[in-house]
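check this:
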Amino acid sequence: MKKKWPDELGPALNNNFLRQLIDKVIPYSETSVIAILIQVLCAFGNVVGLSPFLRIGADIHRPILFIAIVGNSAKARKGSSWAIVRLLFSLVAELWSKERQITGLSSSEGLIELVRDPREPRNGNDEGDSGVLDKRLFIQESEFTSIIKNFGRTNNKLSETLRNAWDGYKLQNVTKTNPMTATNPTISIAAHVTESDLSRHLNENEMANGFGNRFQWYVSKRSKKIPSPKAMDAEYFQDEAKLLKEIIEHSSNIKEVKKSSEAEALWKHSYSRPD
């Protein structure tokens, strides 16, 4: 029996901003509601950074996400969905969009360098390193397998470093020539991949060691066929950008958050499902 595609999002669109954005985009675009929503949340969490947090037991959970959108090449409109999100955030976080977004991640050393701590001079010929002040880093990868393929390279510790980044641990590159550390990294990932590539390249080791478990996986498909989708520029999103900027400014000043009674009930319902 063919499974029904989950078109209904229910409580996910109770948020006024998200509802306004989706109503603005979806009627005139082939993009997926799911792809837009989760990439907005992923980007939002990175822009806001480490300030808001939720305490569960002794663990601290911050709005940092690793997400992967799975869909057929050229038909899931994954790239089109990211183009909308990228444009929107360029209007509200211009410096972050220019300086704290990257693609083409290939090594642990390269990742740590982008969020490295200051370093004192080691000898008379060494001037030290001022480090990177802004520890936020948003990795947008349209070909997720390009990251996964690097895991098999000799002495490549990218998988381990990404797992530590998701956990919020200090990152370290212990070498004699160029030792680096990165304290309080704020690293988010929004990746795109096809189902066939994912099945072929994400091996059992990466699924078992916790790398795959740190990602939220979303299936995306084209919402409809529109031969000539509506042109959407910066002016088109002015109202949404204004609202999003207000939300970001407010959220950046929040510290500890707690689940609402509705969220707690939904969580308990989901948690009680059989494994």
Remarks:
- The chain has one domain: 16-271.
- The mean pLDDT is 87.
- The first strand starts at residue 53 and ends at 56.
